[in-house]
Amino acid sequence: MRHPYPSGSHASTCPAAALVAASILVALLLACAAVGQTAWAQTTADTSARPGAAAAGAETEAVPESDGAPPSAVRARLDGTAKASAEPEPEPGDPARRLDEQVPGVGAPEQPSLEAALAALSERSFKVKEQAATDIAASGDPRAADLLKALLDGDLYYRKDDGRIVRAERTGDGWTLTEALTGESLGTVGRRDAKKITINNPMRTKLRADLAALTLASPDPAVRFSAAREMLGTANTASLAALETQLAREENARVRDAIELALAIAGLESETPAGRLAAVDAIGSSLYPEARNALNRLITAEADAVVLAAAQAARADIERRLKNNARLETLFFGLSLGSVLVLAAIGLAITFGVMGVINMAHGELIMLGAYTTYLVQLLMPNAIDYSLFVAIPAAFLVAGLFGVAIERGVIRFLYGRPLETLLATFGISLILQQLVRTIISAQNVVVENPSWMSGSLAINPALSLTYNRVYILVFALLVFVALLLTLRRTALGLQVRAVSQNRAMARAMGVRSARVDALTFGLGAGIAGVAGVALSQLTNVGPNMGQAYIIDSFMVVVFGGVGNLWGTLVAGLTLGVANKLMEPWTGAVLAKILVLVFIILFIQWRPRGLFPQRGRAAEG
Amino acid sequence: MGPLTPLRGDSGGQAMLGVLLLVAIVVPVLNLVVPEGSPWHMSTYTVTLLGKYLTYALLAVAVDLVWGHLGILSLGHGAFFALGGYAMGMYLMRQIGDRGVYGDPVLPDFMVFLNWQELPWFWQGFDMFWLAALMVVLVPGVLALVFGWLAFRSRVTGVYLSIITQALTYALMLAFFRNEMGFGGNNGLTDFKDMLGFDLQASSTRVALFLASALALALGYLACRWILSSRLGRVAVAIRDAEARTRFIGYRVDRVKLAIWTFSAMLAGIAGALYVPQVGIINPGEFSPLNSIELVVWVAVGGRATLYGAVIGAIVVNYGKTYLTGAFPEAWLFALGGLFVLVTLFLPQGIAGLFQRLGRRKAAPPSPEQAGEAT
Amino acid sequence: MRMTAPDGSLLKTLALLGALSFGLGAGPLLAEGEGDEAAASAASESETIKVGVLHSLSGTMAISETTLKDTMLMLVDQQNERGGLLGKQLEAVVVDPASDWPLFAEKARELLEKDDVAAVFGCWTSVSRKSVLPVFEELNGLLFYPVQYEGEESSRNVFYTGAAPNQQAIPAVDYLKDELGVQRWVLAGTDYVYPRTTNKILEAYLKQNGVADEDIMIDYTPFGHSDWQSIVADIKKFGSEGKKTAVVSTINGDANVPFYKELGNQGISAEDIPVVAFSVGEEELSGIDTKPLVGHLAAWNYFMSVDTPENQAFIERWHEFIEDQDRVTNDPMEAHKIGFDLWVKAVEKAGTTDPDQVIETIVGLQTGNLTGGTARMLPNHHITKPVLIGEIQEDGQFAVVWETEAAVPGDAWSDYLEGSRDLEGDWTDPVNCGNYNTETQECLGAGAAE
Fold first, then answer.
1. Cα–chain-centroid distance for residue A451?
2. Are B166 and A554 inside 8 Å of each other by CB?
3. Would you kindly state where each structural domain of chain A is located, as residue ranges?
4. Residue numbers of B between 287 and 306 with CB closer than 8 Å to A
5. Strand C442-443, strand C433-437: pairing
6. Looking at the DSSP assignment, which residues form a beta bridge with residue C132?
7. Who wins on pLDDT, A541 or B371?
8. Which residues of A47-61 are buried (b: 16+ CB within 10 A; e: fewer)?
9. Looking only at Cα atoms, what is the longest distance across chain B?
10. How many helices (H) and strands (E) does chain B have?
11. How far apart are CA A201 and CA C181, in angstroms?
């Protein structure tokens, strides 16, 4: 399933959203408790009246006034639209149809009409729109879920002349409209004739909660899971009933767990100590933040000693597990930062480490790689997911060719004068920066993340690894291995090593050193370009991006030992992890300063880095 | 001719000092004596600009001393420059007194703003010029001494040394960016009013600062020449060309290095101290590693290992920057970058090398400086 | 160190070197001499009025500032089409201070002394403004500063057309507090003076509103910070403790892209923990893939998406000028437009570009905002501005979700800071002081000396 947000990412990280919904729904729960229902389970049979839905209709008319819009106009438009739209029949076999039978209360008699609610969406006031969305959710209409989803995704528009709610698709300089409810085609209109229905955060929160209730019975387990996840800690009587029903026939273990947890969290509000104790047991050591928060709430208010002890034990258990997860997370952060350093530095390990060129233009070669990614994405706007696979070889070629050009044009005249390469490449770096500024723009450019690079891999609710970091870590290792193999196992690699160790001898043996130099520099530059592709997924792509990495890259190469690829790998990862281990105590700035001081002191101890080159070559 | 003996044979240096003397006489006259309407009047803007170039030139001389003659490529000399500048900046901040925006008699504005109640210990005494002046050389000197002692003792050489000097200035930059450090964070120290009781805005003060810069450059240059013509200097050149051999002959290589390195850092500090009142601001940007790289580039453009070449390089590059950023704001980086590439390719000895070549038309053998390009 | 040059050529070398050094030394002098002459004749024959544009075109700030340079060129063009000013054509003098703060001061001096400009429009960062401030005060120039900033300043020679903290930060926090019910606050910023001040003001303001210490988390990062993993994870933890949490971000420019990417990837959506930013506008978003950011907020005084005829005309004009239909407009651009309009009006009213007269006439003048309403120059050299809060949309634009009913007057000295509570800037008679203590009725600092 290709979805920009793999369910895991939302599943694990919606605590705040859920809590906002909670604040609305806590009142309902309290109301239920006041009526004397001893356990939430009993409410299943008694939920024909859904308070939210009932209240909704009554409030609709009052809301526009608070916003200053003339209520009469609103109503006039409401009527007009309602008349204009046809009454479609719900299609048989629609999966949402089953909801009518399962969710009690949705079929309440005083439900507002879907059409009227929909029409109100063209209003400017968010309060009106929010109410409209609530009405749509409460309408019980099978198309409601679909509409709410479209609203949430920003697919709903309204026509400016008659306020009709439509779905719009960009065609040329205008929009192709289809009626939102019926799917009837309404032709095309100009760019300014249709306007998107904007929603705000409170609405989004509400929509997600509403959608969760409507999609709990979805055939897709991932949708069911996120629906259940959404209900953690926010469930009201109606949704609890729905959860119960779903639990009875849920087969997917992950969804079952989520539903059980949602029920258990709600169970903490139980009237009886036994009920609460059972709920605490059911929560166990769940890592969902909602579970911990619910336990915290319970602990502050609990009177029963047994329940309190159980809750405290559960919370201690959770805290312990969280701490372990946090350690793992820090380690991952460190490795990830390290992999970025390795990627940035590894090209330099060739041009600087192997060839001895103090390549100040290294950062700009990285930048060229990143810009190549941008250009590739411009060329294939409809296949962003595959763009990186094109961009990697393209960036290697572009940066590599620039590298060869730099080597042939400038650096080959400077062998034996390594420090002067610093001067020339510094000049080249200025030129490259300004070149990009002039040709493309001084502004940053957008490089999109393919969907498979977005979101995170949820190991458990408290630990998720972001995909882009995981892939880049793997990618850094792959690049490293490929480079190592190139140098160790290929003819070119042999020649590169020969020339770097003893140029005169290599030439005497028939190695065409000029060609090898050009190719080596091209290889280093190409790797820098490939690093640029990876970095474009993490950070800015702009004319200055190279400068952000050049200093760090030199540090890594020198710390690892000039001329040693393994040194670069170990150094990069070590510095990354060290930085991240210190960050919680010292803050980001001080951590970086300490790492630099550490490098300075380390070099005193081992003046040639972690893995010093030995022998004659080292003296060069 | 006592103090000028080190200049014997240094025709470039003689010429440079001659020009400097000329400029030092002409500039004040053009600014202060020639009336403002006259086309020959030199504006205070230009005087200050020239003064700034001279401080850069002094900094470049300090770099050339260690790079050209000792073989240490420092990518962190900007740090010593900036530290000298901060010491002077702190004095100038204290001179503001109650004229800051909050009117606090003691605390500089940024401290009032950070809710600090009293002056931190390291700001104490900076209202006294002599202490500030001492710190201008002492702080960079001590830092260089400690850093050099560690590095030379462990025989860190070549690119490793270059990169850790870069790490040094980078770490200092990050540290000074922190507001908690008590040096004004990113904004640094600015809005100076006067110095030794003289209004910093006044033309006469500016001319005096310009003259002070010229004097400092001349003295700094002579001091470097004097060192180089001494025994110490000759050992330094030997270290540059063959460190191991010099050590085996029995010289204490690390002590020689340390002495010259520390002296160079102090010179850089003085340059920084003269720079700050003229540009009116010191902030952590001066610690930026790129600045330090750029100043190495000045030396290379001017001609390494000639000292006077460093002066030429600093002035040429910075004048170019001033001119181009105004005349071709969109394309000046092309020109500057191109200059660096072309100089490296076609003028490996820099501009000074060009003069030498012109002077050596009659096919004299290449000078020994042209050998020895050891890292 | 032998540098033996044959004696005959010593003179030649000396002559060459002398010529070179003198050429360099005197270069600016001579050029300037000519410039002065030209300026003198220009003044008498009066062909053009020069307007200085002091924005970085290279270096780190070029990303933001080049747009403002182009905006100024457009505004000058536009004014010339309307017949110029006082019967003369305007001429923009563009220089590149290259994101180098001392160079800002130098270039400001160049503009004022050498080019003799009537007014300068420029600067972005606080440090660049601080760097040029003494120059403008010394040479009595005019600077129009178009960026939202930390306040705590009111100079006779500077006009602050961007927002002061009370025109951006406080209304934004009010919105989060009142409309979204936020109870916990993360104040995240880059470690420099603008975030420091803003966060200090906000902290004081929040505490005044009963927010407990443990519900405020303050975090500073260096410029260009690119690895946000730990901080975002911390924010996530901080926000998962049961209270509605929001992030108030004063993170600067470049660091925003990786920050927002990390937010998106760690699955923090706007509904969970909304981020309201004060330094992220359309221009910054045009460098970010905004799909994961939908719903995060920004507070500004202008959004490109605001549907008014004035704004449409401005956007069309901009697209025409820059020859790119996809370029966005942003808040500092509007600030420059307002500043430029006010300056033009003041010059027209005074009948001269003389700074003293412009300073006198400009206070109280009004011009239309692009988003409706009017901007008025206040005695403290700040202007009145409407405050808008927008949510990021998928297309990189903002949808306005909230706005102040009336324009908010800019407050140079914050009421929430210890040292500046009693201070006030007023450059009209009889006060004529940038930091006037209303308690002691004294003009503090440098003003007192004058």
1. 9
2. yes
3. 6-36+324-619
4. 289-290, 293-294, 296-297, 300-301
5. antiparallel
6. none
7. A541
8. beebbbbeebbeebe
9. 71
10. 14, 4
11. 11
**pLDDT at site C247:** 95
Q: Which of A5, A12, A19, A433 to mutate to test the interface with C (most CBs of C within 10 A)?
A: A19
Q: Is B248 helix (H, G, I), strand (E, B) or coil?
A: helix
Q: Which residue has the tokens 């002056």?
A: B119
Residues 198-227 of C with CB under 8 A from B: 200, 220, 222-223
Q: How far apart are CA B294 and CA C98, in angstroms?
A: 14
Q: Which tops the pLDDT comparison, B37 or A109?
A: B37
- For B198, C106, C129, C142, the CA distances from C134, given in Å and listed in that order, are 16, 11, 9, 12
Contacts of A538 in chain C (CB under 8 A): 226, 258, 261
Bond from prior residue into C430 cis (ω within 30 degrees of 0): yes
C197 phi, psi to nearest 5 deg: -65, -50
Q: How far C60 CA sits from the closest chain B CA (Å)? A: 12
What is the count of structural domains for chain B? 1
> What is the number of other CB atoms lying within 10 angstroms of the CB of residue C83?
10
- Rounded to whole angstroms, the Cα distance separating B48 from B120 reads 32
Query: Looking at residue C263, what DSSP letter applies?
Result: H
Q: d(Cα C256, Cα C282) in Å, to the nearest integer?
A: 13
* Domain carrying residue B234: 5-363
The CATH class of A6-36+324-619 is: mainly alpha
The confidence score (pLDDT) of residue B361 equals: 60
Cross-strand pairs, A529: none
Backbone angles phi, psi at C52, to 5 degrees: -85, 140
A203, two tokens: 């609405």
Q: Give the one of A126, A340, A444 whose C-beta lies nearest to C401's C-beta.
A: A126
- Asked if C62 and A333 come within 8 Å (Cβ–Cβ), the reply is no
Handedness of CA A284, A288, A294, A296 (dihedral sign): positive
Helix, strand, or coil (residue C287)? coil
User: C43: which chain B residues are within 8 Å (Cβ-Cβ)?
Assistant: none
From residue A415, alpha-carbon distances to A346, A495, B67, C176, C328 in Å are 21, 17, 19, 61, 47
C269 φψ region: left (φ > 0), alpha (ψ -120 to 50), beta (else):
beta
Angle between the N-to-C axes of helices B44-70 and B289-302, in degrees from 0 to 180, rounded to the nearest 10: 80
Looking at the DSSP assignment, which residues form a beta bridge with residue C92?
Answer: C51
Q: How far is CA B195 from CA A110, A206, B134, B274, B277, in A?
A: 83, 64, 16, 12, 8
Q: Residues of chain B with pLDDT > 70: what percent?
A: 94
Walk across the sheet containing C423-426 and list its strands.
Answer: C423-426, C433-437, C442-443
The counts of H helices and E strands in chain C are: 13, 19
Residue type at B161? L
Q: How far apart are CA A599 and CA A572, in angstroms?
A: 12
Tokens of C121: 């429009």
Q: Do A542 and C254 touch (CB under 8 A)?
A: yes
Q: Whose structure tokens read 């001429």?
A: C91
Contact C62 A544 (CB under 8 A): yes
Q: Identify the three-state secondary structure at position C395.
A: coil
Number of neighbours of residue B37 by Cβ within 10 angstroms:
9
B198 strand-pairing partners: B195
Q: Minimal CA–CA distance to B177: which of C252, C413, A603?
A: C252
Residue B55 has pLDDT above 60, yes or no: yes
- pTM for this predicted structure: 0.83
- Beta-carbon separation of B190 and C18 below 8 A: no
Q: Give the model confidence (pLDDT) of C90-119 as tens digits.
A: 999 999 998 888 899 999 999 998 899 999
ipTM of this predicted complex?
0.89
Distances, alpha carbon C333 to alpha carbons B296, B329, C75, in Å: 39, 20, 10
Chain center to CA of B306: 16
Cβ atoms of C130 and B187 within 8 Å: the answer is yes
CA nearest B67 in A: which residue?
A419
